[in-house]
TrEMBL record, chain A:
CDD domains: S26_SPase_I (cd06530). One of its GO terms (cellular component) is mitochondrial inner membrane peptidase complex. This is Mitochondrial inner membrane protease subunit 2. The active site is at residues 101, 174. Belongs to the peptidase S26 family. IMP2 subfamily. Heterodimer of 2 subunits, IMMPL1 and IMMPL2. Keywords: Hydrolase, Membrane, Mitochondrion, Mitochondrion inner membrane, Protease, Transmembrane, Transmembrane helix. One of its GO terms (molecular function) is serine-type endopeptidase activity. It is found in: Mitochondrion inner membrane. GO terms for biological process: protein processing involved in protein targeting to mitochondrion; signal peptide processing.
TrEMBL record, chain B:
The lineage of its organism: Eukaryota, Metazoa, Chordata, Craniata, Vertebrata. Heterodimer of 2 subunits, IMMPL1 and IMMPL2. Its EC number is 3.4.21.-. This is Mitochondrial inner membrane protease subunit. It is found in: Mitochondrion inner membrane. One of its GO terms (molecular function) is serine-type endopeptidase activity. GO terms for biological process: protein processing involved in protein targeting to mitochondrion; signal peptide processing. It comes from Coregonus suidteri. Belongs to the peptidase S26 family. IMP1 subfamily. The active site is at residues 59, 102. One of its GO terms (cellular component) is mitochondrial inner membrane peptidase complex. Residues 33-115, 121-165 form the Peptidase S26 domain. It comes from the Eukaryota. Keywords: Hydrolase, Membrane, Mitochondrion, Mitochondrion inner membrane, Protease.
Amino acid sequence: MRFWGNPYYTVNRGANRGDRKKMARTKPNWLSLGPGGAPVGVPDVTEWSTSTEVTFLVMAQQAGAGRRYIRAFVSGFFVAVPVTVTVLDRFAYVARVEGASMQPSLNPEGNVTGSDVVLLNRWSVRNYQVRRGDIVSVLATKRAEVSRCKRIDAYPTVHTVARSPKNPQQKIIKRVIALEGDFIKTLGYKNRYLRVPDGHFWIEGDHHGHSLDSNSFGPVSLGLVHGRASHIIWPPNRWQRIEPSLPPERKPLLNWHGDTTEEED
Amino acid sequence: MKSREKLWGRDRARSVGAEMFRRALGKTLGFVSYTIQYGCIAHCAFEYIGEFVACSGPSMEPTITSHDVVFSERLSRHLCRIENGDIVITKSPFDPHMNICKRVIGLEGDKVCTSGPSDIFKTHQYVPKGHVWLEGDNLRNSTDSRSYGPVPYALIRGRVCLKLWPLHHFGALNQSPTGRVIKRSN
C-alpha cells in the first residue's frame, strides 16, 4: 500500500490502477509540485517565490500528509475493531478467575499468589453443547453485590467485581454436573432430589461450602452459557488443558427424558 | 534480475506461469480478507445495533401478528435500558435455539399479579433480582411467565422498536392492550 506519493497529482500509469485506495484527485499541471516544493511546469518560477505562497504550499502539503494519517487511522480502526470484537464474541476470550469456589481446580492458592487466567472457548458452545464435567462460564442472573450482605436467597456471584448496580453482565465459572433430564441429588437446595428441566443444566463449584451455584439458585437455562474454559494460561507453571471430569459422588443418578429411561454410562 | 525479454522458451513459460499464479493468489487473498472484514462488520452490526426478526405465533396479537417482520435493536439490551412495557425478543428458557417475543410487564423487584382473572383470591409475586416478567398481549393464547416463571434478564436479545412488514402497519408498536404493565414510580 503506497501512501508516500505526492497527493497533489496522480500518475495514471497502468500499474497504479490497482491502487484504488489512493487519492485520485487530478489537478491541472500548473499546481504540480517538484522536489523542492516549488511547482513544476510553470515557466517563470520567480513569481511563486514570495514567502506567503511558499508557506501556503508547504502547509497544504503537510495538511495532505495529516489527512493521509487520519485516513490510515480510520481505515485501520474500521478493520481492527470489528475483527477484534468478532473474535472475542465468537471464538475465544481470556478472563481472570476470582474467588475460591472452584478450588482446587482453579485458583488453588486463592488470590495470594495471583489468580488463574483461563482461556474461554466460545466457539465450542455456539450450539449450546456442553458435557458433564466441563468448566463453563455462565452469565449470572444477579448483579454484583457489595460483600457486606451474604443472603443465601440472593443469587450473588463469588466474583465481586465492582460494577454499576444496573449491569447484570457478571459471569461466573462453575462445573457442569448434570444436563437436562438428569435426576440428581442436590447439596443444600430446597429439593433433595431433582430432575433437571428441559433446556436447563446444573452447575456447581468444586469447593462445595464456598460456592454460590445451582444449589442456591436452582437449574440454569442453557441460553445463559457463555463459554467453556479450555486452558489455564497463567501462571506459567499452571499451563494445562482443562479436561472435563466429574467427581464420582456427583454423578447423576439417572437420566430421564420423559418416558424413556437410560442408564448413565 | 533478468528482465522478461531475456528469458526464452521454458524459462519464460515458467516465469509467466509463476506470475499468473502469484496474481491469482493475491486476488484470492484480497477477496478473502475483504470477506473477513465485511463479515466482522456485519457481525458487529447484528450483535450491537439491531437485527430483523420474523415473528410467528398468535401470542402477541393484536400488536404483532404472525408473519410480521420487525426490527429489534440491541443497544438498549447492552446498556440495560429495557423498561416496563417494552416488547423484547428473548431466548426461550426451555430451548436456547428458539426465540420468543413478549412484552415486559415487570422488572426486578416489581410485584406482579400471578392469578388469573377468574380467580377469587389474587396472588402476587415479586420478580427476583436479575429477572423480568414477560407476558404476551394475547393473554388467552400465550405461554409466558404466568406458566414458566420469571425469565433471566441475560436471556433478552433485543427490544422491538419498529414494525416493518406488513407495509400498511409500518411504524412504531402500540402500547399494551392488556393493562397489566406495572407502572414504576420513577
